[in-house]
Amino acid sequence: MSNRSQLASWQALKESAAQMKQTHLKTLFAQDDSRFDAFSTQIPGVLFDYSKQRIDKNTFAQLIELANECDIATWRDKMFSGEKINITEERSVLHTALRNRAHTPLVVDGEDVTQAVDNELAKIKAFVEKVRSGQWLGYTGKAVKDVVSIGVGGSNLGPQMATEALKALADDTLNVHYVSNADGVQIASVLKAIDPETTLFVISSKTFTTSETMTNAKTAVEWFLQTAKDDSTIAKHFVAVSTNLEKTAAFGISDENVFTMWDWVGGRFSLWSAIGLPIALYLGFDAFEAILEGAFEVDEHFKTAPFEQNIPLIMALLSVWNTSFLDFTSQAILPYDQALHMLPAYLQQGEMESNGKHVNFAGETVPYTTVPIIWGMTGINGQHAFYQCLHQGNVIVPADFIASVKPQVAVDKHHDILLSNFLAQTEAMMSGVDAQQVTEDLAAKGKTQAQIDELLNHKIHQGNRPTTSILLDTVDAKTVGRLIALYEHKIFCQGIILEICSFDQWGVELGKGLASKIESELTDDSVKHAHDSSTNGLMAYYKQHRTQ
Ligand code: F6P
């Protein structure tokens, strides 16, 4: 039995959950007109409103007590100081050191991490300026026009999400393309659009062993050499971001063209490191630094704000409350800002790869649901797709609604229309429409009692569906940094509260290992491994039909 479920606060929350399941949010709002003031908080550039969550003051106090009983403050300090809290891999967890804008020294395993980070940032800055100013020349003496970033998972999602978020603010110095999929269709379409003489490839892989990335990188080199011919030209067109200098050298990338990261940076927390190089190349180093600054502000908030106003901690507590106590096992991320369209995909990895586990620190099976399924898309598109289910389905999906006060690009009345939808949806999910309202509306439209009876149940919206609204001043580099850091610390707190080892990903390794075994069978008929009849049947069908 896990310790967490034996805590006094956990037991108290279980009782509160039983009561809260019988309570409607509409009633909570009716009982307390200061609910917004009580359950919303701000940091520069961000308004965080969780008043439409299914909590009251009593539950909130119990959740804060849970944070205390789980010793969040001690764990937080351990993380920031470089203790090896990634226990299954014996590593520190120091993505916060990558954006330590106070530059306070931090010695871990005898190395001043701050100094190492600052050195790498200086290297990134110099490189970015050389490329963007046109001083970095390709093998025929031409400046770079296109950057192709090759990486997958944490070595792709962060940079691509930030690039998408900020592309309205980019100048036209460089184009950036992302290739992550082993499906050749993706790299083929990118290669079709670029010129080897003016293209810079950034191969991003912490391990430099990830099969999808290596496959794409190999294809890129072969394509490049078809024109450039000479291996010595690779140095001018390929750089790497990795911790594995041996592998990057074997690949043909010279050491000075390798940007490093460290084993204390997890893939899904790495956009602040040299993994963010494509962002800096695309938007300029200043914009990249602004992202770091936004995140640093949130780090300071997380370290110093009292628990009752600590946004990432509250996000985590609400997630645990919804998932482990109220039994809502999925959570939607719904940005009402086109710039944030990749945020759901980014957070899927962030949260599910971190906390999608079923054993506690001691390796014992936990008796509660851990991470919810994270999914979503831009809110407006979602409204015309799956919101029907959010409003009237018989699964309840708590949702984060994210919008910005000022649009990146103001077009006529678009933003007011967008924000009206943002506001309307959370109100509708909270209050719903009861039988009396439906009856009155239909009667006002002249429907007979028989017609009303027929339609009534179809038109009732139960409401009572919990949402959080995050209102950003605008989506700029600093805000992107703030937003991502809020979710990162949420994930950390969630992991500690649930006693989950958030910083490993053993579950991903299983499929990776099997894929490489099967690949050898698909490419060499003499190789045979034992499989189940389904896998055998699928392989046989594929081999038989692939050349027909
Ligand atoms: O998907 C599993 C994973 O290990 C992620 O955690 C990581 O971000 C990704 O693969 C890429 O790994 P690498 O940067 O080593 O290529």
From TrEMBL:
Keyword Ribosomal protein in record: no
GO molecular function: carbohydrate derivative binding; glucose-6-phosphate isomerase activity; monosaccharide binding
The reaction(s) this protein catalyses: alpha-D-glucose 6-phosphate = beta-D-fructose 6-phosphate
UniProt-annotated location(s): Cytoplasm
SUPFAM superfamilies: SIS domain
Catalytic site positions: 353, 384, 512
Pathway connected to this protein: Carbohydrate biosynthesis; gluconeogenesis; Carbohydrate degradation; glycolysis; D-glyceraldehyde 3-phosphate and glycerone phosphate from D-glucose: step 2/4
Pfam families according to UniProt: PGI
InterPro entries reported for this sequence: G6P_Isomerase (IPR001672), G6P_Isomerase_C (IPR023096), Phosphoglucose_isomerase_CS (IPR018189), SIS_dom_sf (IPR046348), SIS_PGI_1 (IPR035476), SIS_PGI_2 (IPR035482)
Keyword terms: Cytoplasm, Gluconeogenesis, Glycolysis, Isomerase
E.C. number(s) listed in UniProt: 5.3.1.9
A GO-annotated cellular component: cytosol
NCBIfam families: PRK00179.1 (NF001211)
Family of this protein: Belongs to the GPI family.
UniProt-listed PANTHER family: GLUCOSE-6-PHOSPHATE ISOMERASE
Name recorded for this polypeptide: Glucose-6-phosphate isomerase
Lineage, opening ranks: Bacteria, Pseudomonadati, Pseudomonadota, Gammaproteobacteria, Alteromonadales
